[in-house]
Amino acid sequence: MEEGGLGLKRIKQWNEAAIGTRLWEIVARDDSLWTNWIRTKYLKQQSIWAVSSSTSASWAWAHILASHCWIKQRSNVLVFSGDFTNLWHDPWIDGQALKEKLPPHMAFHWGPTKSTLVSKLINNGEWSTSIRWPPTYLEVWEDISRVRVGGTHADIPIWMGSKSGTLNAKAAWNFLRTPKPQVPWKGWAWDPGQIPRHSYTTWLALLHKLLTLQKLQN
């Protein structure tokens, strides 16, 4: 209503937003029966960002995975211990995954496996200096060294599209849609004290949509 409409949502966008929140529950490691079941059945120690859909996937799971493309655009990870962040696939380097910062032919060709955690690079709360990086990785290492780490706190996934840092249905919906400018008359056109029919008529008048005689003749 702040944008001059009736507050109705496009069902396709709202459905995509709702499905996206399910993916975020997995990313945020919610301790629920559903997320624990997903981790056991589908992830099997993999990062959710490394899982792709298959022809045998259920409708719901396939659509949850389809949310990857837009949710990861605004995702980041605050690394503390590194025990919950996948080294290769999670977006922990300024919102990018390590594999995205390397040419395809270089990814995974270095020692750590696809399931290696960021904690393997951390020693006593700091980046380990004992790791022998291949010369081709040195530029990437500079980016990694700028990421702040430390402490025993669990790593925190961040959704950069909301002030709270979490992805809820409203934040997802606002990301997926194209917002319009807010109107100055929303407060009094839709005043709770008004008769709903009067509010609706006022709304039509403000939008110049009343069926006046002149408009009917045209």
Automatic annotation (TrEMBL):
InterPro entries: RVT-Znf (IPR026960). It holds the Pfam family zf-RVT. Residues 169-217 form the Reverse transcriptase zinc-binding domain. It comes from the Eukaryota. This is Reverse transcriptase zinc-binding domain-containing protein.
